[in-house]
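Deliverable D5.2: sample structural annotation.
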Amino acid sequence: MTTTPAPQSGHGDTDTLARELRSLFGAYRRRLWEHSDTADLTPSQISAILRLEEKGQATVSDLARAEGMRPQSMGAIIAALETVGMITHQPDPQDGRKMLLSLTPKCQDWLTLGRAQRMDWLLRRIEDRLRPEEQKKVLAALPLLHRLMET
């Protein structure tokens, strides 16, 4: 089995920065999710919920397309979410053959609580681990990090 080496730009510092940022952001994401109740949902189920939160309502086909999967696979994800009361569906008023999915109040409460738990953990972590002058340095770097994410 051969592995493809990571692309190298020829700029050691840039390569190191890119590698470290990717690793750090992934670790932060995982740690934040560890500090909230994921309700035993899979990453695919969480992704579907977040897409519905962003879009408001969508069909199974819309979600499947957005996630790059077959509608049948997304249908199984949605069925599981409906079973636990996170998603509901109703006929599309424009086309009664289609069903529009939306988040239930239970799911919206779960999202709100999870975000509050993650924010609480992060606030405590910042206060416990960074001195005020270090917090200011991180704050000063935020515009640069945001610029990296601009399209």
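Annotation notes: The mean pLDDT is 90. The chain is about 65% helix and 5% strand.
The annotation will be released with the project's public dataset once the embargo ends.
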